[in-house]
């Protein structure tokens, strides 16, 4: 079969067939009397083998090795192809994500596009200082799409950069809350905790609703962060978790401050005082717990709290007694 007919039947151009011949991949078995290339059925079968291997992503050199080396084992080559394909997919996915984010920012010109690209590259930098500058720049100018900010926030380890990113997110509006809510469901504890910290800095009702959901979750660190944020927002449901934090000695000073904020509401002050006194009774054997709970009574008004301080001023633990006595004097001076 002559080269023109081979090209027509195989779909491989005559030019490519000549290239295969020059590389030694497919050599026509013979020549006609006029010197034209003549391919046998075996040659044509090899052409199809070459094309099949090329479709898997093999280079022409790898195709030649696969077809001509008797000791060649395909398993290692296939493993390499799988690895290379995954790497290529990852690169293409990253490019797609970047393009989508640029599109979401609705740039008005190439200057905007270049600025967004520069900020995205800075957020992925190994330099914490560069990431922080990018976050602060986005907070001031609102130039980054919220998806990029959320992704960067949920994976950021440096506390200074994380703070700048949370600030940028809080200024970006409500768009990031749905993505942060997904972060609360992450199987990775650190991602859940970064998500709740970011939600806590968004001052709106939808964020408060997400924090209330986090308050009932299984991650104790997430619950505590949500309780502190809800306490500052005046949400009474946070009170039990805040008292637990004081008993456990986990951010107990911040928890006591949040209780003091909540107790400013007359309808809550007595309830909080009663709950603290109840926990004092439950933890009476542990002096360190009594000390923390006594300190927490400082900003809780009401007769219940005053009576409890009077009893604590006679406590066997000197630190508890001195703290309670001091707090009683402050109340009497008011």
Structural commentary:
Helices cover 72% and strands 1% of the residues. It is elongated, with a radius of gyration of 35 Å. It contains 19 helices and two strands. The chain folds into three domains: 3-72, Multidrug-efflux Transporter Regulator, Chain: A, Domain 2, CATH 1.10.1660.10; 85-214, Leucine-rich Repeat Variant, CATH 1.25.10; 239-334. The chain is an all-alpha fold and 334 residues long. The protein has a two-stranded antiparallel sheet with strand order 1-2. The protein has helices spanning 3-10, 14-23, 41-55, 60-68, 74-104, 110-123, 128-141, 146-155, 159-171, 177-184, 189-200, 205-214, 220-232, 239-248, 252-263, 266-282, 287-296, 303-312, 318-333; strands at residues 30-31, 37-38. α16 (266-282) runs antiparallel to α17 and α16 runs parallel beside α18. The protein starts with a helix and ends with a helix. A hairpin with a 5-residue loop joins β1 (30-31) and β2 (37-38). The longest helix is centred in the first third of the chain and has 31 residues, at 74-104. The model has no long low-confidence stretch (mean pLDDT 87). InterPro entries: ARM-like, ARM-type_fold, DNA-bd_dom_put_sf, MerR-type_HTH_dom, MerR_fam, PBS_lyase_HEAT. This is DNA-binding transcriptional MerR regulator.
């Amino acid at each position: 079969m002559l080269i023109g007919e081979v090209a027509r039947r195989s779909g491989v151009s005559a030019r490519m067939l000549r290239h295969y011949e020059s590389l030694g991949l497919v050599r026509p078995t013979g020549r006609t009397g006029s010197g034209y290339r003549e391919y046998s059925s075996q040659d044509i079968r090899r052409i199809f083998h070459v094309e099949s291997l090329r479709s898997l992503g093999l280079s022409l050199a790898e195709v030649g090795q696969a077809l001509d080396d008797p000791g060649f084992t395909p398993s290692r080559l296939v493993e390499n192809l799988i690895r290379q394909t995954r790497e290529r997919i990852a690169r293409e996915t990253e490019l797609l994500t970047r393009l989508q984010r640029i599109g979401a920012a609705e740039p008005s010109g190439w200057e905007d596009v270049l600025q967004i690209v520069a900020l995205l590259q800075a957020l992925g930098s190994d330099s914490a200082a560069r990431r922080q500058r990018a976050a602060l720049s986005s907070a001031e100018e609102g130039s980054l799409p919220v998806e990029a900010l959320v992704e960067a926030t949920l994976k950021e380890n440096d506390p200074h950069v994380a703070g700048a990113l949370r600030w940028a997110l809080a200024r970006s509006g409500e768009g990031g809350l749905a993505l942060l809510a997904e972060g609360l469901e992450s199987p990775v504890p650190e991602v859940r905790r970064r998500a709740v910290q970011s939600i806590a800095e968004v001052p709106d009702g939808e964020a408060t609703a997400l924090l209330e959901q986090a308050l009932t979750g299984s991650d104790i660190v997430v619950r505590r962060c949500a309780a502190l944020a809800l306490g500052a927002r005046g949400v009474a449901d946070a009170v039990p978790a805040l008292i637990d934090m004081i008993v456990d000695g986990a951010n107990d000073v911040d928890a006591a401050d949040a209780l003091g904020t909540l107790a400013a509401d007359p309808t809550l002050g007595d309830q909080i005082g009663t709950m603290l006194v109840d926990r004092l009774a439950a933890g009476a054997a542990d002096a360190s717990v009594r000390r923390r709970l006594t300190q927490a009574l400082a900003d809780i008004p009401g007769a219940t709290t005053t009576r409890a301080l009077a009893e604590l001023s006679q406590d066997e633990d000197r630190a508890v007694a001195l703290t309670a006595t001091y707090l009683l004097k402050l109340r009497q001076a008011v």
